[in-house]
Specification:
Strand order of the largest sheet: 5-6-7
Radius of gyration: 26 Å
Distance between the termini: 52 Å
Helix content: 40-55%
Shape: elongated
Number of strands: 7
Order of helices and strands: HEEHEHEHEHEHEHH
Low-confidence stretches: none
Length: about 210
């Protein structure tokens, strides 16, 4: 029992080996933590994500060990699919916008309930990919924080373009009413504003 606890505390899944009714050994099985997992958690926090939770069906000691290595402090372990779903629903009731990342059949209900479901494309099961709103075609964790950053840049760009368009229309309308703007000049200004909007939108290609 001491060895079992020790192995689980190191993030390993311990499997007992027995002959008849007598335990004679332990097999320790462990998935290696991805090299960029800790960096991904850090980047998510930097991008404005307030809470990062681990939801897993694994043993609590194992889950807490893996979470500590990744820099995650809020861990929910030994969960069934309905438990994950309930946690997502409770987070939404608290007023949070919730994104859920998963790759297994057990994650499908939670992926469907989340505001944004993200499936790991290559490793994900078919049902997880079909249920999710976003499927990452490459199993690269950093793509999640990159997607958040790109979405924020896109929304900011849209707001900028709307302001440019409204200002242009407002100035042209005022010019027409005051008799300062005629058709040719108005068309020229309008086309220039369209070009400015296009060029501003193309800045996202650098992101």
């Amino acid at each position: 029992e001491s060895q079992l606890k020790s192995l689980k505390a190191k993030g390993m899944t311990a499997v007992l080996v027995s002959v008849g009714s007598e335990a004679i050994g332990i097999l320790a099985i462990a998935d290696s933590l991805r090299e960029n997992a800790q960096q991904m958690v850090h980047d998510l926090q930097q991008s404005g994500v307030k809470r990062i939770l681990m939801l897993t069906g694994d043993d609590r000691l194992t889950a807490e060990s893996i979470a500590a290595q990744a820099g995650i402090t809020e861990v929910h372990a030994e969960l069934l699919p309905e438990d994950k779903l309930k946690i997502i629903q409770n987070l939404k009731k608290e007023g949070n916008v919730v994104a859920m990342t998963g790759d297994g059949i057990n994650d499908a209900p939670a992926l469907a309930a989340a505001d944004i479901g993200i499936a790991m494309g290559t490793a994900g099961t078919g049902i997880a990919i079909e249920t999710a709103d976003i499927a990452l075609m490459a199993d690269e964790l950093m793509k999640i924080s990159q997607a958040i950053s790109l979405s924020k840049l896109t929304l900011a760009n849209i707001r900028q373009n709307v302001i440019i368009a409204l200002l242009t229309v407002g100035l042209l309308l005022a010019g027409v009413l005051l008799g300062r703007v005629h058709m040719a000049g108005g068309m020229l200004v309008h086309q220039l504003s369209v070009l400015i909007v296009i060029i501003n939108g193309m800045r996202l290609l650098r992101a």
